[in-house]
Input
Amino acid sequence: MSGAIRRHLRATPALLRIGLAETVAYRAEFLVWMLTTTMPLVMLGLWTSVAHEAPFRGFAERDFLAYYLGMLIVRNLTGSWVVWQINEEIRSGTLSMRLLRPLHPFIGYATTHISAMPLRALLALPITVVILLTSARDVLADTAFDYLLFVVSILGAWVLTFAVLVVIGAIAFWIQRSFGIFDVYLGVLSILSGYLVPIALLPGWLQSIAEHSPFRYMLSLPVEILISRVEGLEAAGLVGLQWVYASGAVAIAFAVWTAGVRRFEAYGA
Output
């Protein structure tokens, strides 16, 4: 086990360099993918119009501005395209080459996505500047502890999202493609994660479902911490629960992947 860990650690810098090179090489596709995640801007225009005359259920214009710009930042930093990678590699058979490498495929997929973080951060920087230059800055977290929790929650959201998408991608071992399941996932995520509408504004029964679902911890929780909707010990408890969800998702991803690879290899791939 220790030998495998050392091997993974030695290979990680090279994998990160390769992943960054691929991201730069396909920067146009990467930029288009990132720009398609701008639905929060549409919702921002809608809700600020609603709150222009008076706050709506505790959300004033500045709250909506901070929320949806924060959502753009979180979405940019935690998004993943691993579903497409897995589906394409299974369909084309190139997954066989990945399975022959001495590193677990999850390491390769993860480093590819992590290496894109510099470009993701560049896209998030202008949004951050807008928040700081507008009234939205007045609702941002104001303690170092909350900002630390925000960073930890971003990492937890990334791990949780990545693991769930690996599971969906690995379903392609049993069906021709798993994009149909992914489309359903996106629809549910859009509602229960707070991506389109803040969870606090959902109808009571739907709000209860969203608050206790893992989808909240993929997007909404980091935003809630950033704009002081949850703070201190309450935020710390929610981040702890987020990592419970993330750990469970990783365990499920390993189990589904292992079963799928056995089936893949059984067909002589």
Q: What stands out?
A: Confidence is low (pLDDT under 50) at residues 23-29. Residues 2-266 form one domain.
